[in-house]
Structures are given as structure tokens and as C-alpha cells.
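Kindly review this record before class:
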Amino acid sequence: MSLVVGGGQVGPLRARGMRTVADLAEAGPDRPADWNGEPYSDAVLRARAHRDGEVVVPKVARPTIPRADVEVDVDLESHLDDGAYLWGTLLTLRDGRPLEDEGYRPFVTWSRLPDADEGRAFAEFWRWLTGIRDRAAGQGRSFRAYCYSRAAENGWLLSSAGRFGPEGTLAVVKGVPGVAEVRRFISSPLWVDVHEAVATQFVSTSGLGLKVVAPVAGFTWRDPEAGGEASLGWYRDAQAARGVERDAGRERILAYNEDDVRATRAVREWITRFG
């Protein structure tokens, strides 16, 4: 039973005579006494998914996620608490009208962190992102930007503004917005957390991280070792190496970041197909 529910939920299930995942999968809708934590219906659905060999399954009839004419997926790469050295973006024009070339754009610094050049890369990213937003609005087109789990992106967006913005604690870099401007953006409907859309509408037998959900949506990373922890090592290697080895390390990080934003888009499109 512990494969699909937490330890505190096992007791109430046993009190109902349930001992296995199969028992829970066959359970009716009535919640056991003393049940706590997630909705009981989620636990039953997860047990059924485990029984049927599924990884991620919807718990609502028609999962949805906000879409727009102009969409930008965003993923950052940081090194521990030293700084965010790469802001990767993927532009998609859903209405087919011209605005700017679609595809992946990285805004990156390879300077050893912390360094003011991190602010330069962030300023270029912010100028590009808000420029896309404003041009779309000027043409009467809807716009949204997406990330997978806003906690990381929001944290570094605010940190970058605080360290390099008009009142920067590390350096004042031209083009970096103030914290208030960033807060307005991340609290607006234009900034969408894809993980939140997944977590509120799906259950999983293996978690709801991007590396779990995107393969269910049909996406595959090019690098078999792709992952946040691995990228820390790639970054350190790229910093220490020289010449061809350094360039190969940097290209590996950029390819990984590009796959992350493409994976985020794949999950969004997968959710939309349910509707």
C-alpha cells in the first residue's frame, strides 16, 4: 500500500480491510474514517494507475491550461546559490502570423559567478521577453509565458532584479528591471506555471516532475544523462576546461536547456489535447 499512499494513510485503509494496491484500486468512493492528506479519490486513482501500469493519469474530465497566440517557454540554469547563468526561451507563434523567428534563444554568461555579466545576460533576456509581450499586445494578439514550477524561476527573477536592478546589491546593470516590475509580471495571468496545471489535474505513480511527465507526453531528451544535478557537473567542467572540451561542455548545457523548454511545451500541448 505504501507504493501509492503515505504512511499516515495506511492505517485508515487497513481499518477498512484494505491491504494491497489492488484492494485500494477496487475501492468505492466513500472516504475512510480518519483519512487525512490528499483527496481520497486521488489515492484510489493512483492505485488504479499503478495496477494498470500507467504513470500519469488525469483526475478531471477535461484538463486544460491557458494558451495564447504568442507563447514563450522559459527555463533557467543556475549554479547552486552563485547565480543564474542561463535563461533559455522557446518562442511559438500559434496563430501563424509573423512577429519574430520562432525557436530557441539562450541568454547566457559563462563568466565565473557571481559576476556583473550575469546581470547583462538577464537584462537581454528581460528586454527580449517583454519586447515580445509588448509587440504581441500592439498587434492585438494574446501572449503568455510558461515555466515548469515557478518557484525556481520566480526566485531567480526576483534575485536578479534585486542584485542587478536600479537598486542592485551587487551591481547596477542597464536594462535590468526593478523588483516591483518583476513582481507585477510573475503575479499576472501572463506567467503560467505548467507544473501547477499538472498537479491540480493529474495524479502520478512516480511524481509530477518534468522528467516524469514529459516522456508521458511523448518527449525525449537527447542527452541520456539529462537532469538538474548532472548539469551542475557539466557547468563546473565547462568552467574548468579549455578549448574544444570547454566548447563541448557549453554546447551540452545549451542542448539540455533547449530540451527542457521544448519538454515544457510538449507537456502544455499534451494537456491541451485532452480538451
User: Anything to note?
Assistant: The radius of gyration is 22 Å. The first helix runs from residue 7 to 15. The chain is about 50% helix and 15% strand. The first strand starts at residue 56 and ends at 58.
